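Posting this for the archive.
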Amino acid sequence: MYATPKVKFVFDRRKRASKTTNGAIEIEVCFAGQRVRLSTGIGVHTGEWSDGKVVKRLDAQILNRELNEKFNDVYDTVKQMIEDENVCLDKLKEYRFGERRMAQKLNALDWIAERIELRPVRESTRRQHNVMLRALRASKLFYSFKDFTPVNIKLWDDMLHKQLPCQSSVHGYHKRLKPYIAEAIQLGLLDKSPYEGFHISRGRSTTRKFITAEDRDKIAALTLKGGEAKARDLFIFACFTGLAYSDIVKITKEDIQQEGAEFFLRDHRQKTGSEYKLILLPKAIEILSRYDYNLNIITDQKANYYLKIVAAKVGIKIPLTMHVGRHTFATWALSSGINIEVVSKMLAHTDIKTTQIYAKVLQQDVTSGFSRLKAQC
């Protein structure tokens, strides 16, 4: 008669968990002085595991349900071995979840799809990660984790270069894949990163697209209705504040403070979490008042769609997007003589190098420079 093996969860055995790094959750089976650990494919941060379950996470219920299913699966497997009187750790290793789950239910890309859904990120970021996943599927290079090799990554990189317009876009796809590669290594699904010794260039920084103050005012003066009017108003608001769409739509009346004759907007950027404080110019206040201080009036996709129509109405060839409004504010401020350090704070950039991209010499500065040289001849 066999003794009953002991089955339990083990968290962060390799002591890698922190507030920003996941620690692996494994299922440990002990029998006859030996033990085996099975990867669950799930990891959580420090403080998110207590008394054998995930805590203090919005997705805790989902993760605990998945962990319990896996635990029961292992326990039932061990129980069956006991009934068959054929219990040995070597045989039990065949039931490691990283391999068993892929064979029975998921391949590597399905695993990545699950991790994308569980990842605590903004929905816009999640959409970008799903775009990356679709590119992985379309390549037909990857099925199991064994397919994530330097050779296949290079082949995928070659495909991306044929499909995408610039190196920075290619870099973005690799950047979004790498966290899942790192997590797979952490959970024992991959032995090492396929990116070892493989450098992905970020590409050269591109000139930001913007429109002139004259074109901005033409757009503001248009008589529009419906979605076109809403998209135009959000765009003009971005032109006069430098805010991104995600920051604009979360403004509330409580975020606005009056100090003397000035109205200030104080909040944190959605993308970086950095705090900003800006003076609301009259045009921005006018738009806020028009919508009763609630600019969550249209999705970014719809806004960008209608902005293309608006651009055509005033003869602007640049493909207008909400972010062009932010770029327009930045170049307007710089060309008005405002110091780049100040503009960086206006835009709530965490690194002035980002602002320097906007500071590439404007054509009007080139013309002005040659005019001054001509005057000396």
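Residues 113 and 133 are 7 Å apart (CA to CA). Residues 110-186 form one domain.
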